[in-house]
Design goal:
This protein is mostly helical. Helix content is 84%, strand content 0%. It has eight helices and no strands. The protein has helices spanning 2-29, 31-38, 47-54, 56-72, 76-128, 135-158, 162-180, 185-192. The termini are close together. 29% of the residues are buried.
Length: 196
Amino acid sequence: DKEQVGNIVSKAIPIMIYLALPVTLLCVVMPGEIIQFLSNADFVAGANTLRVLAFVLPLIYCDILLGAVLIANDERKYMIRVAVAILLFNFLANIYMINRFSYMGAAITTLVSEIVLLAINYFYVKRVICSRLDFGRVGKIALIALGAFVVGMGVRQLFPGLWPGSVAVIGVYVGLSWATNVVNLGQIKTLLRTEN
């Protein structure tokens, strides 16, 4: 039933964005601290690159959902054509961007490639099934993320280190989400029911 699938996709995209944003926020607010936690100070120079790549995560979450819809609709030929086009774009853009901007160029190319892929797949899926992006809910999620970002940056300045900032970012994100009821556990459970 394409109408039911469209309804599920419309509800799922904001939830996918919501679930991906905490990791994105942590990587944007505290990239150096995360790099040092996972490796050592030798790699801290890549902190801004991690900031750019952090924005790829919500896009990937949404694209996986759209890919599942395309597979269910037997659009494999379309998916292969798009994948080859994105691969070619990514390859050519990387040749130019890496020469000019080193690894930051590769990160920017990855982000742009994922944005283009998501846009192409979203508009194609929208034609196949009747789904509409809930801009109101996505906007609320973006405002909540912005609030968590601002608090996280402030806490990071006052209390250096990974843990105070992490607790602040996640605490504000979850707290504002709960206060605004933008996404709740019931909505997530409804989407995960077996009949969906």
